[in-house]
Amino acid sequence: MAKATIELPDEFVRKLNLDQKQLIEMQIVDDQIIIDKNSEGIRQANKIAFRWAMVTGIVSMLIALINFIMQRTTTVGMTGANSLTQITIYLGGSFGTLSFLVMAFKTRHQAGHIIRWYNILMITLAYGILGTAVLALIMWVISSAFAGARLDIYTMSLIIGALVGTMNYIMVISAQGLRFQQAVSVLIATLFGGIIMSMATNGSVGWWQYNFSYLGTDRVGNGWIFNFTLIFSALILLTIVDYLFSALGAGIHKNRRLFILRLLFSITAIAVGLIGVFPNNPGWMHHVHDGIAQWLVMMVLVMIVAIRWLIPKPSWEFLVISYVMAGGLAISDILFKKSGYLSLTAFEMVAFGFAFAWLILLLQNLRNLIYDDDQKYVAKIELIK
User: Strands 32-36, 25-29: parallel, antiparallel or unpaired by DSSP?
Assistant: First the structure.
């Protein structure tokens, strides 16, 4: 085994909290040296998650059993009141959200985590809703596979405890490893998942003949899903923006260009939420809704045009993609207004797709700025013969 002396910058040592005679693991991935200091920490985190899952699973099992005894239930069904599905979703959603919140606060000081308490609360709410929705989908699959089945209260309580414990394990692991990319993934899953659900459950097969925003009006069965999706996605977007620009020091006195971009981005996120607050119902709400939608598109176009002056050293590829997307927005507008090639629904969906894709791309580039500034160090390696 070759021996070498490595000189590390003081900032690197401080961030990794290294001490003398510290053993660290290193691996080569795509010709890059990856330092893994936290192997023992990861194993400890898994132990904590497993213990948390065991405790919440046992508590859930006891709660379910006590509930069945108090209700004088002899056998429990898969669906309906006081069923496997209902109790699992209630307990799983509640304990899962609480588990994520506790663990996120506990690990909030680790590098890469969302630090501010209100950011943690918003991300916890997002994970809680998403986790509950996934659990509900799983329970639907289970109840459909075993339709009509009924089991005794002890067996059902054990199954409920196992399901709730498993969900809590996943939620704790997610909170322990919370990073920027996970937050963006939750944003994308929330937005597109909510929109797809709105399309599938709106109760109007011809919704696309009106406009995209028709999904949120009072003329469909579940318009609140579409509106809630937009409002909640806007809140997550504001949370991510606050985290990124705070890390970049985007203040009015420190970095005015990034502060302007932060202001524009925040206004754009607020516009997304206001579209959900003011659905496209007939009357004055229709005019307010359209005005906000136009303002949203204008904000995105302004950011795209000015982006080369608002962020430090934008890459050539990013600028090209940005201008291509701006061209796509302009062409779709022409195809809709001048030629009538695109219907209103198609135009809105295309415009929304371009705008949201560019916002995600911008978030990734801002994240790279943080990475470039904070996590690249030069080390001197001297081989010992």
Answer: antiparallel
The residue that leads in pLDDT, 353 or 164, is 164
pLDDT, tens only, 30-42? 556 666 555 555 5
Query: Domain boundary at 133, 153, 178, which?
Result: 178
Consecutive H or E run containing 380: strand 380-384
**pLDDT for the residue numbered 377:** 59
Residues 6+ apart with CB under 8 A from 306: none
Collapse the DSSP code of 219 into the 3-class scheme (helix H, G, I; strand E, B; otherwise coil) and give the result. coil
Number of structural domains (the chain) is 2
Judgement on whether residues 334 and 215 belong to the same structural domain of the protein: yes
Question: 83: domain range?
Answer: 47-178
One domain for residues 121 and 230 = no
- Nearest Cα residue to 359 out of 194, 192, 184, 179: 184
Interval 67-112: pLDDT, tens: 999 999 889 999 888 899 999 999 999 999 999 999 888 877 654 5
**What are the DSSP calls for 142-191, one per residue?**
HHHHTTT-EEEHHHHHHHHHHHHHHHHHHHHHHHHT--HHHHHHHHHHHH
- Do both 217 and 228 map to the same domain? yes
pLDDT for the residue numbered 24: 65
